[in-house]
Amino acid sequence: KNIVNNYSEAEIKVREATSNDPWGPSSSLMTEIADLTYNVVAFSEIMSMIWKRLNDHGKNWRHVYKALTLLDYLIKTGSERVAQQCKENIFAIQTLKDFQYIDRDGKDQGINVREKSKQLVS
């Protein structure tokens, strides 16, 4: 999928960090992405992919949750432009405080996204 869509190295790393796998993004991968935020071109690609992931819903709730996790990490360790862009797009993060998804077993998976978004905007 990465080759077909001609994703850049930065986009592939973000997609990997925000995958639907049941485990979180590795700290080494998040560190690599944070370092890439200092490159102007990579920064745009990273943020664009993160905003795309934040717009996922339903069964792709992990994309959203992991994008918030990555964003939290990048705000703390990446380029200051990450925090700046988050401030400019705070509404996109705030709306996730109402994120809803109940899985097949009746478990509320949306709570993870709701809590993480609350934490990010506070």
From TrEMBL:
Keywords: Cytoplasm, Phosphoprotein, Repeat. The keyword Phosphoprotein applies. SUPFAM superfamilies: ENTH/VHS domain (SSF48464). PROSITE patterns: ENTH. Residues 2-122 form the ENTH domain. It is found in: Cytoplasm. GO terms for biological process: endocytosis. One of its GO terms (cellular component) is endosome. Belongs to the epsin family. This is Epsin 2-like protein. It comes from Lagopus lagopus (Willow grouse).
